[in-house]
Amino acid sequence: MKRVTIYDVAKEAGVSLATVSRVINGSDVVKAPTQERVQAAIEKLGYKPNAIAQGLALQKTTTIGLVVPEASFTYTGQIINGLIDVAKIYNYNIMLHTITEGITDVNEIVEEIIKSRVDGVIVYNDKLMMPEIEQLSKYNIPIVVIGNRVRADNVCCVYVDIEKAVYELTLKYLEEDKTNIAIIEDRKNHYSSQQMVSGAERAFAKKGLKFDGYLEIPSDTRTSYAFLSKWLKDHHYDLMIGNRDSQAMAIVNTARENGIEVPDDMEVVCVIDTKYNSMMRPQISSFSIPSYDLGAVSMRIMTKMLNNQTDVHPETELSYLFTPRQTTKN
133: exposed, middle or buried (C-beta count within 10 Å: 0-12, 13-18, 19+)? Predict the structure, then answer.
């Protein structure tokens, strides 16, 4: 079947190529009768405007750059699903850029985004922070940051208040006189680690105490599991908190291997919950973070920024819910 082109539409409507292009791109300089004739030709022939050509005419690409951590990260997949579903509704394409720990050069990613002439950028990665975001802003590119609270011109953010979540959890345990609390570092997300520690520090300070339970994984240790296998031989806690459920699984497994019963001897909580938690025994108590909604809301905000809508808020906070399961007593 022969592909219908803009030339066919022009011939059918009896107008120039330029007139057809103006009608397709919403120009108001074409008189109403001519517009109607062109639209009738488009419908009759079943012509589908090429999105790239249409974007060039408008100086837009209808493409959004998305920067995320390595694609294997399950939690990221839910964010991407929410984002893509909304992008489809508003006819935007997504250009994916992944950043891998210790391999990807962030500056190269920034350069690639600029060269690709995207209309906007959505970022879920704490490796791309203020210096890089400010560099992108110089090109007048709208930016939405997922997860991190960022304040800058032409930048909006969508986040869950992880600091508050850990503050409330920690305070609950302190009020039960359980003060031996540890948070394990998440090397894949330094920002979340910082937020978790800040929440614990604030809760301890409220009780006149000092938090010193942040466990940094040595650079020569590859995984949380390898670190905890040795660490828990000599260290016991009332509560251990991990950012991801995979880290919490490492806590539970290494605790068992060292004769520490969960939750009787030690309780375990993770912040980010994924589908893998449902396969774990015991199931881990966690904060239910609306990952799909983080992506969907971010994309909707981006469409509003691109259309210069006035109801765009620079910061959008989504709620969380603590879900107790088998790794906590109450």
Answer: buried
Instruction: Select 6-57's CATH number: 1.10.1740.10, 3.30.450.40, 1.10.260.40, 3.40.50.11600.
Output: 1.10.260.40
Weakly modelled stretches of the chain, pLDDT under 70:
1-3, 25, 27, 49-61, 70-74, 100-107, 125-130, 132, 135-139
In this structure, which amino acid lies at residue 169?
A: L
Cα–Cα distance measured from residue 172 to residue 19, given in angstroms and rounded to the nearest whole number: 68
Q: How far apart are CA 7 and CA 34, in angstroms?
A: 16
| pTM assigned to the model | 0.75
Query: Residues 196-232: pLDDT tens digits?
Result: 999 999 999 999 999 999 999 998 998 999 999 999 9
Is residue 126 within 8 A of residue 76, CB to CB? The reply is no
